Amino acid sequence: MDLLLLEKALISLFFTVILAILISKLRSKRFKLPPGPIPVPVFGNWLQVGDDLNHRNLSDLAKKFGDIFMLRMGQRNLVVVSSPELAKEVLHTQGVEFGSRTRNVVFDIFTGKGQDMVFTVYGEHWRKMRRIMTVPFFTNKVVQQYRHGWEDEVARVVEDVRKIPEAATNGIVLRRRLQLMMYNNMYRIMFDRRFESEDDPLFVKLKALNGERSRLAQSFEYNYGDFIPILRPFLRGYLKLCKEVKEMRLQLFKDYFLEERKNLASTTRSDNNALKCAIDHILDAQQKGEINEDNVLYIVENINVAAIETTLWSIEWGIAELVNHPEIQQKLRNEIDSVLGRGVPVTEPDTHKLPYLQAVIKETLRLRMAIPLLVPHMNLHDAKLGGYDIPAESKILVNAWWLANNPAQWKNPEEFRPERFFEEEAKVEANGNDFRYLPFGVGRRSCPGIILALPILGITLGRLVQNFELLPPPGQAKLDTSEKGGQFSLHILKHSTIVAKPRVF
Ligand code: HEM
């Protein structure tokens, strides 16, 4: 390490310690803060609780400190909420007060300090972005317009897998083909285009850059520089890489997708709404001066992450659970065969006639929530929660995974049992009608993509189970379902090899 840098860091550390002690003395007089481990100057609780603040570790801390607790992570306040009552308070009753988002040094880079929709604070910009995005993305009309495309995409997956002899014997990493499908499902909506194969160079580039964006943003390895500003110089290399990835991605969106649509719009009549894809609507808003070009690019960025990855992870989890629970898989297949008839392809309208399929999806989203801590919320101003004072700009995590997996609230929550949604949990829906079950959040900042995600999950899982017997690879009794948690995400650690034995109709 550079000596001058070390000297500067030590001097800053000294003054920060003094400042932190002064601030904490002032604060402790004014505020009744939520319980939590006792922080030390500068580092707060960071050295005690470590970096890996995933949903399970935060659930363990809730058992120790209660349904609301606070961690001081260097300069940042982190408040974790772990009961349905407090979740209701954050997301519904005080939805405006807690309806902003925090970002950290890395999310600042990837979202241009909140020029997007997902990570912007609650206010005018967010309202405008949500309004502009609703018609092209988040209505039932969009579902009806694009569902044939999604049915076509999964039909191609089935056709391709049937053609690979190895799929029926040693198995294949099914996720790879499903990833192409998910990109096509969303790129059809966004840009009215699709990628022909997994080898399409543009798809390969896009997938790699999006993968890097997720890895860099969800990693815990940059926490130290985010929590403790004087350590930030050591994060220089990491942040430089984030900036490069961000620039390359936005440039790719611009050069290969936006420009193409703009050129098309200038050569064809674009007054026919039926022929417009999502980006045409967004570009209209830009032309009217409602948003700027950066906002357009960040909308594309948001959809690439919020829509494609979450849905793909959920499909992957659903398949893994069905492989590991063959009796549930068979029961689902029997339902599809008996309601639709053998070999009649599952379509979007059919998914509403298949209650067991719906229960399998709900159970997957309960046990294997893709965004188990929701997207972090934030209060812009000092606030009250559960009888405690919450200092302005605290990061508020709602541990939605624990709400849906707490044995005090759910019968044998560790069990994958879709039947619970016909029995003791028959009234619970994925739309947030019960504060114990919030896979898409609820309230102002809830997921608007639920309207697309549920039918895509239904069509995809339905078609796969209808067409294949899904099994672990030879010599393996079960798939490895170890988890990989991130800043607020959860996906399967290892992409499984799956045997897909085609059914004959
Ligand atoms: C299974 C798939 C999905 C899951 C589990 C999921 C889950 C979530 C969750 C938990 C949130 C945060 C809620 C909160 O902070 O209170 C969220 C936000 C969001 N999701 Fe999804 N999502 C999925 C699919 C999608 C899709 C397909 C789209 C778009 C087409 C989408 C777009 C968004 C957007 C734009 C936000 C930010 C909303 C805001 O900040 O106002 N999501 N999602």
Automatic annotation (TrEMBL):
Specify which residues bind heme according to the UniProt entry for this protein: 447
Q: Identify the PANTHER family for this entry.
A: TRANS-CINNAMATE 4-MONOOXYGENASE (PTHR47948)
Tell me which domain of life the UniProt entry assigns to the organism this sequence originates from.
Answer: Eukaryota
Tell me the compartments it is located in: Membrane
Task: Give the source species.
Answer: Herrania umbratica
> How would you describe this protein's topology in the membrane?
Single-pass membrane protein
- List, separated by semicolons, the cofactors it needs: heme
The protein's annotated catalytic reaction(s) are: (E)-cinnamate + reduced [NADPH--hemoprotein reductase] + O2 = (E)-4-coumarate + oxidized [NADPH--hemoprotein reductase] + H2O + H(+)
What's the protein called, per UniProt?
Trans-cinnamate 4-monooxygenase
Q: Which spans are transmembrane here? A: 6-23
Q: Name one GO molecular function term.
A: heme binding
Coiled-coil residues: none
Any one GO CC term of this protein is:
membrane
* Pathway(s) this gene product operates in, as recorded in its UniProt entry: Phenylpropanoid metabolism; trans-4-coumarate biosynthesis; trans-4-coumarate from trans-cinnamate: step 1/1
Protein family membership = Belongs to the cytochrome P450 family.
Question: Function, please?
Answer: Catalyzes the first oxidative step of the phenylpropanoid pathway in higher plants by transforming trans-cinnamate into p-coumarate. The compounds formed by this pathway are essential components for lignification, pollination, and defense against ultraviolet light, predators and pathogens.
Q: Which Pfam families match?
A: p450
For biological process, the GO terms are: lignin metabolic process
Instruction: Say where the protein is mainly found.
Output: membrane
Could you confirm whether the keyword Chaperone appears in this record? no
- Recite the lineage of the species: Eukaryota, Viridiplantae, Streptophyta, Embryophyta, Tracheophyta
Q: Which gene encodes it?
A: LOC110426350
Keywords carried by this UniProt record: Heme, Iron, Membrane, Metal-binding, Monooxygenase, Oxidoreductase, Transmembrane, Transmembrane helix
EC annotation from Swiss-Prot or TrEMBL: 1.14.14.91
Is this entry keyworded Heme? yes
